[in-house]
Amino acid sequence: MRLLKTALVAGALAVLSVTTIASAYAQDTKIGFIVKQPEEPWFQDEWKFADQAAKEKGFTLVKIGAEDGEKLMSAIDNLGAQGAQGFVVCTPDVKLGPGIVAKAAANNLKLMTVDDRLVGADGKPLEDVPHMGISATKIGEAVGQAIIDEIKARGWKMDEVGAIRVSYDQLPTAVDRVEGAISVLKAAGFKAGNIFDAPQAKTDTEAALNAATVVLNAHADIKKWVAFGLNDEAVLGAVRASESVGIPADGMIGVGIGGAESAINEFKKPAATGFVGTVIISPKRHGYETALNMYDWIANNKEPAKLTLTAGALAKRDDYQKVRKDLGIE
């Protein structure tokens, strides 16, 4: 009996020791999460869900905003100086890829990207860097189909409708999204000559409003419009522009991408606006799962998949709460 008790105590101590070591290791683990536009709701949500992973696993999460290449490189050096072991990044410029990889290696940091995939000098993706992103073309196609369905529901004649392509062509993801939408529009009989480019200086609502206003003023004879772009902010900017030139809500069909707080707030307004829907892409996976993957890579030497693509779901004013719940956001 004494031997049995001794064995049980020894076993319990061994389990306690392993648990204590694992807990201590987690406390020593420090992971950076760098985003290009920390003020945007999407990135705020990514950070929120990354914080969840940090609390669950007990590691330290260092959140850094880096709006340009210089700030990004400084942030990586800062993480290295803090003793971090790795970081997740959404870069302000995908063409910085080789420099980011080199800087991470110089600081002995593991590297994973989220949202925007790094490219090399030849413009091709750096496939050795683990990445979680969105099937941009498919997301864009979903936007295009939502627009076509709404055009039909309103009984509009396709050749009387103008389309605002709110563009940010220096970002490949942005190009893929809008071109995906355009491919569906054209396949449904939308006139290519009625699709107008509205290049935005930044990926926020104000820049999109300014860009879309130029298009609307240049084509004041068109009274029915649709709008699409990189994200919700791009489309909200186009909707605000349409309102500013006197186009009523029933003369605009805007479908965004992201399902950000700005889109949800639009749905909550007492009266419907020209922003009719958003293809929600869950920031939960992009924040929580990438942070968790980085932790597993550091703690358990389990490298993340080289490429993970997430999907989206269309949400409208009358069903956005259910869609968010189905995606695990609420």
TrEMBL record:
<keyword id="KW-0732">Signal</keyword>
<feature type="domain" description="Periplasmic binding protein/LacI sugar binding">
    <location>
        <begin position="29"/>
        <end position="309"/>
    </location>
</feature>
<protein>
    <recommendedName>
        <fullName>L-arabinose-binding periplasmic protein</fullName>
    </recommendedName>
</protein>
<dbReference type="InterPro" id="IPR050555">
    <property type="entry name" value="Bact_Solute-Bind_Prot2"/>
</dbReference>
<dbReference type="InterPro" id="IPR001761">
    <property type="entry name" value="Peripla_BP/Lac1_sug-bd_dom"/>
</dbReference>
<dbReference type="InterPro" id="IPR026266">
    <property type="entry name" value="AraF"/>
</dbReference>
<dbReference type="Pfam" id="PF00532">
    <property type="entry name" value="Peripla_BP_1"/>
</dbReference>
<keyword id="KW-0813">Transport</keyword>
<keyword id="KW-0574">Periplasm</keyword>
<dbReference type="InterPro" id="IPR028082">
    <property type="entry name" value="Peripla_BP_I"/>
</dbReference>
<comment type="similarity">
    <text>Belongs to the bacterial solute-binding protein 2 family.</text>
</comment>
<feature type="signal peptide">
    <location>
        <begin position="1"/>
        <end position="26"/>
    </location>
</feature>
<keyword id="KW-0762">Sugar transport</keyword>
